Input
Amino acid sequence: AVKVAEEMAQWPPLVVRMAKKVLQHNFEAPLDEALKYESWGLSIARRATNDARESFLAFSEKRKPTYTGT
Output
């Protein structure tokens, strides 16, 4: 669990917030509802365009990304 948490700490802030929200919602949700909610969460997480750009640049420049949550 600690290893997963350490990996998640490297993710963009908006992605972490949405992952937490989706997991909490889907814990007891029926499968069809859970899949819709997960799709919604992914669409929200992709709106952090600056973090998406930073992720691409950091990968191409072989460095660790610095996320802003925007």
The first helix runs from residue 2 to 8. The chain has four helices and no strands.
